[in-house]
Amino acid sequence: MKNLKHSSVIPMPADAATLLTRSAARITDYFGRLALRYPGAPARLMQAIEYSLLAGGKRLRPALVLESAKACGASNCSSALAAAAAIELIHTFSLVHDDLPAMDDDDLRRGRPTNHKVYGEAMAILAGDAMTTIAFEILATDAADAVAASLVAELARASGPEGMIGGQVIDIDPQHRPANLADLQHLHRMKTGALLTASCRLGAIAAGASATKLAALDAYGRQLGLAFQIVDDILDQTATAEQLGKATGKDAAKGKVTYPMLIGLDASRREAHQALQAALDALEPLGEQAQSLRALAVFVVERKV
Amino acid sequence: MKNLKHSSVIPMPADAATLLTRSAARITDYFGRLALRYPGAPARLMQAIEYSLLAGGKRLRPALVLESAKACGASNCSSALAAAAAIELIHTFSLVHDDLPAMDDDDLRRGRPTNHKVYGEAMAILAGDAMTTIAFEILATDAADAVAASLVAELARASGPEGMIGGQVIDIDPQHRPANLADLQHLHRMKTGALLTASCRLGAIAAGASATKLAALDAYGRQLGLAFQIVDDILDQTATAEQLGKATGKDAAKGKVTYPMLIGLDASRREAHQALQAALDALEPLGEQAQSLRALAVFVVERKV
User: Fold this and answer.
1) Tens-place pLDDT, residues B118-150
2) pTM over 0.80
3) Is the per-residue pLDDT at A95 higher than 80?
4) pLDDT digit string (tens) for A134-177?
5) Cα–Cα distance, B101 to A56 (Å, whole number)
6) Where do the H-state alpha helices sit in chain A?
7) Considering the domain boundaries, does residue B40 fall inside one?
């Protein structure tokens, strides 16, 4: 990691681990009480939803929302907590639907059988559907009036036809197979980048941030999303299934195009570090308040799982 | 139809047909321009979405939204139009997912092959997912600031674990098979009633209606939903596939419990008319302004498809 600006103040990945653990605990606690909101819902539906929501995971998106809000001066912001829960619901719904037999057909996720393996295909579809409506309900009811509609618009746009879902459509279509780096980046900007960028933007919007700060967090989020995906591709090739809690080498086996496949492992690592540098650069307008976001960016690139 | 109050002013079903045609044209026009909002989306995704959105249908829910807003004094209300489009998107997404092989496994819908028959299962899942995010995006961006968050909360609640999706979970679970009329009504209140009631409530909220008017439209919506479902069950048994544009007698074939099955055809028809009367009674506080809603209620019970 050469030439990193702010190098004297960049926290160690250990700090990122601590703050991820802390924000993960808040979100897990939130999800643990989710079924209480729906006493009239079929019990098995709420179980299927909780099965995937409480399966662990890094909770990177909620951490980005909460830390982005904090970087804009809003600690302990209830709108940011609502947005953190909402985006993790959308992310989790996308995993449940992506794992379905008609899509990626995965049996294992985070070291456990996938949702449809436990609850059946129909329930997995409906549990994913419900996670989406719950996400928007939480934003509309729990966020402050002044920002609720903006948060809904932001999350919906990032999830929809030009964001995550659009990216998934491209990803499963053999005709859309990326032929070069530009295609691959376009795919990732939609499939994973849109939601990671939205995490940062949601935090800023929840905090009522200025346009300058929102733009800074937008740029940070886009570079972080790029770095995240390159590292994901690298790990799929180099990590063991035990480390990741899911099958590895599946990208290649399915004919999916990855960064290492297009430019090799070394160049992929260099690209990831360039994106990290750009993410750190983008945070300059936020000064010392963005320290946790710097730690998260370093963590994303250095992570082993 | 005996003892109907307001009988001197109850419009003929022909009036309902006219206003359904008019509101259907507005919604179809709206959906015809939907892809323009998403120039960066994969073309085939937008085609799959349009295939189901532009398949016709009665457009009963949008008509209820628009006429409920009008009954509360808001004609030509852009928030109501957004809500009308949003609820039809949610309704259509539910049809696309319900038709999937893992769910009801239907090949025919509105006289045409179902979405997954044309675009494949993966695309049908994703098209349904995208319709949901689009629905909430439209509410958040197109409705007036003062009502946007309330509209999102209302639609999300009606669609979610205690509403439409919860009802579908019960409907596909053999263990939840309704044993009596109370069970069956509970199922329908969730699966179809929640969204029909929400249609009326959304119109009232969009119009900034008083609590009294909102309560009146809530009661109207619940009775209309009940009537709608009883008639649906009757038609499944008595109408031809050609009339309905979908397979008939499927409820019985699948072991699904219906009103005629539990109480017979004649008693079912009586129940439907009692619900109609209750719906008309509920509209009293709205006076002459609710004339179109009266016509729609009559239409729902008298319809042959």
Assistant:
1) 999 999 999 999 999 999 999 999 999 999 999
2) yes
3) yes
4) 999 999 999 999 999 999 999 999 999 999 999 999 999 888 88
5) 30
6) 13-32, 43-53, 60-71, 78-98, 115-119, 121-142, 145-159, 164-172, 181-188, 194-206, 211-238, 241-244, 250-253, 259-263, 265-282, 291-302
7) yes
Size of interface A-B (CB pairs under 8 A): 168
d(CA A224, CA B122): 29
Average model confidence (pLDDT) across chain A: 92
Structure tokens at A160: 């929809």
Is residue A4 in some structural domain? no
B190 interaction partners in chain A (CB closer than 8 Å): 40
Two structure tokens written together for A215: 């733009």
The predicted complex's ipTM stands at: 0.93
CA distance B94 to B124: 11
- Report whether A208 contacts A83 (CB < 8 A): no
Number of domains making up chain A? 1
Whether A185 contacts chain B with CB within 8 A: no
Contact A141, B118 (CB under 8 A): no
Segment 8-27 of chain A within 8 Å of chain B by CB: none
Residue A121 maps to which CATH number? 1.10.600.10
Which domain range does residue A69 map to?
13-302
